[in-house]
Amino acid sequence: MNTADTSATRYGGVAVALHWIIAACLSVSVILGLIIGNVEESESTERALAIHKSFGLAIFALMLVRLAWRLTHRAPPLPARMPAYQRIGAALTHGLLYFTLLAMPIAGYVAVAARGRETQFFGMFDVPQLTPLSRMLSQNATTVHVYGQYLIYALLIAHIGAALYHHIALKDDVLARMLPRR
Ligand code: HEM
Ligand code: HEM
Q1: Pocket lining: 109 vs ligand 1, CB cutoff 6 Å
Q2: Which pTM value belongs to this model?
Q3: Does residue 97 belong to any structural domain of this protein?
Q4: What is the residue range of 134's domain?
Q5: Whose CA is nearest to atom 2 of ligand 1?
């Protein structure tokens, strides 16, 4: 089996679906996170936080599936004339995106759980308390979570910038192979 289809020139349906579902969940999570972090606490921010946490946990679960999929399926080859430094840059950016999208939800969860606060997944079930109660652990995890957002922004600027550069300037099929098949 392969992430690419039989001609191996594009990502397969599962990889494309996971890419865009996670991108959508991330957009919701970041927008709600920014609202929570920047407006005064109220009943609405409590609700926004609950949704933020659920989308964040969904990203974590989907990233685990995506990682397993990626490790067992080959990505389609990059354009042959792409220079080595760009190949290394792409691999590094993708690797760091995998890492931060797994680390951010963990840090968010630890920040909440170490303070003894509950986390529900879309109101369906409680996420078990997996950390000791520790104010220090919670504060450190909050610091990682709050600063981690800037790593995500930097990676996404590079990532989306590169995708658009390929599409608009180089006019190759790098963007098209990650888009749903028409
Ligand atoms: C990829 C997933 C996630 C992303 C990208 C993300 C991103 C963010 C961002 C941008 C903020 C605003 C930080 C600020 O400027 O103050 C935030 C705040 C917060 N997030 Fe997340 N988050 C994610 C997952 C989670 C999860 C899974 C939880 C908990 C289960 C969580 C709990 C929190 C909490 C409690 C805050 C408020 C922190 C504070 O200001 O005290 N997050 N998140
Ligand atoms: C917003 C959140 C996004 C995240 C978290 C994200 C993450 C990723 C990751 C981790 C990969 C590597 C796939 C793999 O080989 O496993 C990837 C590939 C790709 N992404 Fe995104 N992406 C996002 C948004 C976008 C957007 C908006 C575009 C287009 C403008 C885009 C275009 C692409 C393309 C074209 C590839 C394939 C690159 C290649 O073949 O090497 N992504 N993305």
Answers
A1: yes
A2: 0.94
A3: yes
A4: 13-178
A5: 56
Domain count, the chain: 1
Hey, whose CA ends up nearest to atom 40 of ligand 1? 37
Q: Report the pLDDT value the prediction gives residue 6, as an integer from 0 to 100.
A: 47
Number of neighbours of residue 167 by Cβ within 10 angstroms: 15
Contact 59, 25 (CB under 8 A): yes
Q: Given ligand 1 and candidates 29, 41, 140, which is best to mutate, with the most ligand atoms within 8 Å of its CB?
A: 29
- Decide: residue 35, CB within 10 A, 0-12 exposed, 13-18 middle, 19+ buried: middle
Would you say 112 and 46 are in contact if contact means Cβ atoms under 8 Å apart?
Answer: no
Measure the CA–CA gap between 162 and 101, rounded to whole angstroms: 19
The predicted structure's pLDDT at residue 7: 53
Question: Does residue 57 line the site of ligand 1, with CB under 6 A?
Answer: yes
Is residue 1 domain-resident? no
Residues of the chain where predicted confidence (pLDDT) is lower than 70: 1-8
Residues contacting ligand 2 via CB (< 6 Å): 19, 22-23, 26, 70, 75, 78, 90, 94, 97-98, 101, 156, 159-160, 163-164, 174-175, 177-178
How much is the pLDDT for 8? 64
